[in-house]
Amino acid sequence: AFEGCSSLTSITIPESVTMIDEYAFAYCSGLTKIEIQSSVTAIRMGIFYDCDNIEEVEIPSSVERLGGSLFSSCDNLISVTIPDNITFIDSYTFSNCYKLTNVNIPSKLKSVGVYAFYECNSLTYIEIPKDVREFGHYAFYGCENLDVVINNSSNLIYRDFAFEGCKSVTW
Question: In which residue ranges of the chain is pLDDT below 70?
Answer without folding.
Answer: none
